[in-house]
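EI: anyone free to look at a 532-residue chain?
SC: sure, send it
EI:
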Amino acid sequence: MRRRVHYEDRSFSLGLSTPIAMVLVQAHESLYGSCEKGTRDRAWQCIRKLARCMVELGHAHTERFPRKILSLFFDWLSDTPIKDASKQSDMIIVRALIHWCARNVQDILDGPLAIESRNFFRQQPVIGPSLSEHDSRLVMNAALVEIEEVATRIRVGREELNEQATQRAKLIARLLEIGEGRIPVERIVATSKESLARRMRDEGGLKLLCRMIFPVPRDLLPFYVAIQFQLAGNPQAIAKLRRDCIEVNELREDREWVIWDKPRGAKAQRADFPAGKATSAPSLIRRLSELTQPLTSLNEATKDFVFLAYDRGRVAVPSLQTWHNSLLDFRHRHNLPEFTFAQLRRTSAVLHHQAAGSILIARQKLNHASVATTVRYSSYENVGDMHDRVVHSSQEELRKEIHSVPLRRLVRKEPVAPADTVFGFLCSDPFAGHVDQSSPEKPCDHFHRCATCPGALIPLDRPDVIAAILRSHKSLVETKERAIQQGWLPRFNALYQPTLDAISNDLLPKVPAHVIEAAESIAKIRPFPILE
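SC: here you go
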């Protein structure tokens, strides 16, 4: 049986001299020792490539790096049959390692380090086309159907186990007792007494018995598809969701957050959902967490993760290859179009872009810092047809509104004299019908809403107009104090607060000082009526 070797397994010789090997190990520890295992393994893989380069170029036994080691490694990489993006990634890591060695270990190079500025062309990552809205619904419906099947099977199996009312339940209880909380493998069952192997075959086999009480990798796939599609997160990051990822929205009790970490991101990712919806991502996460709760005590290292699976006595988060194998089976079972997990993320971006008509909504959904990144997932071309439909609809509404105005309003040529309003504004046309529930057939009687009316005229250089506005401001302030004392502040806020805000914040600060002075003398002459 071939032994699987991890890149960071240092028991295998690099084939280099001891001083070179030692300094590379030190550089690895300093630069990548605190990183997660995947990053450490990636850096150790690059060290092995550097070692092969030096061996093939005849520098295996030298105790110093050649001063042109970066150029030598670049040329060596150029001849390797890998993509330029991978070559550039290798070059970046090796460059960082060599620079660390040059800075921290004296005489490790045979001369001043020669700078290598060449880079491999790194193409933008290619993402498959998005699914159509119809295919997206098929995928989600298939996932939800399987989620119900998995949840029902495990619920029934655990209820039988608790009651031990059937022979199958008694067999499972005995297997768990032998395996100390786990279903033992067939080899152990075969060597046990009590005819357990025969009884196990009669009940459908070891795999079926496991799936009655524990979710296996295949059972996680529908949850993963539905949750990843809704969160629109990076597939590898969503696979590492933690059990405490759901947080209540402090501003709205009817909303809740799902928060997760992105390995390459500098900040946490999050998505907002309505609370209590049975098929929303938070509800599915809670449901899966309940199904995997018994597995948390079987592996201390993975107890905080949501996606836990039981497989041949082991509890772990499925590997990337396992996810892809399960997805292939899932597509075949439901006769779905071919798609990948990355395409689900892109599909979510496109659907949000189309529904909202704004790339900013898609950027927010994908937790991107820049719109330029989001455009790689959903371009502006994806909403071209929708924009045309919106323009056509708006034009049709405008046409209907024009034809609904009485003809006499369209052909009237006589000028309309400005009308005075309650708070001192001048109305350009009382017959315009700007305010809700007002009609062009009769003059407007909502002269207390002029501060927010597009027909209001406010000449800031006329002392008589400003005097009326000053009287209004004083009366509104006094009326608000009276409303607070008498308990009718909500009515004041609904009727008068917009006018008070407009006068205080938008009008008076823009009036010249000499106009204010002249208006104050006029304002004292005419009192303002009491507001109710």
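EI: The radius of gyration is 36 Å.
SC: 👍
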